[in-house]
Design a protein that fits this description.
mainly alpha
Length: 183
């Protein structure tokens, strides 16, 4: 098992280019952290003045512990109703006129995987529709491309607009009534 964490500059800079859709689709989620507050930024300046933070990096889990965590998440139950809910959301992105490119089948798979991990972190053995709702934007948002509007292409469209489109799709998709754990 392995984990890849990548960073992207908030604006285009020389030598930094947005990934093509096929490569973005291989990342499970996109999470924007924003800027640190003033106190955290000041602490960073002081810390890095005398040492590199990389010198203090130590593993927080062993390889075996990571493999066990992955296995635990994979064994979380997702009912057929929850799976159909995730598929309905993904298909709605493909049929939405505001989007030029909707969610791929890989996106649906990652949405379910992320929901299973969220459920495991919450101590549950089953996925809830709320898990899907909470993860729809971070898992789907970086994969979608907005349709051209007023001469603005999907890649130049603000993330807020894609967030709004996804949130609207999630709000309009019927939530399964019986989606709890296995009987």
């Amino acid at each position: 098992p392995f984990i890849v964490i990548a960073t992207q500059n908030p604006i285009e800079m020389e030598g930094t280019y947005p990934l093509p859709e096929a490569q973005r689709d291989r990342f499970m989620a996109r999470i924007s952290m924003g800027y640190p507050d003033a106190a955290a930024e000041l602490a960073m300046l002081r810390q890095r003045a005398t040492s590199s933070p990389l010198d203090a990096v130590t593993p927080v889990v062993t390889r075996e512990q990571l493999a066990a965590m992955i296995a635990t998440a994979r064994n979380v139950y997702a009912s057929r109703a929850v799976e159909q809910y995730a598929v309905a959301i993904a298909q709605a992105t493909r049929d939405n006129r505001e989007l030029r490119l909707g969610a791929s089948p890989r996106a649906t798979l990652q949405l379910i995987r992320a929901a299973k991990a969220r459920a495991a972190l919450d101590g549950r053995e089953f996925v809830l529709p709320d898990d899907i709702d909470a993860l729809a934007v971070p898992v789907l948002g970086h994969r979608l491309i907005a349709a051209r509007r007023s001469g603005v292409s999907g890649s130049a469209l603000s993330g807020g607009s894609l967030t709004e489109i996804i949130s609207t799709i999630v709000a309009r998709t019927p939530v399964p009534i019986s989606a709890a754990g296995p009987a």
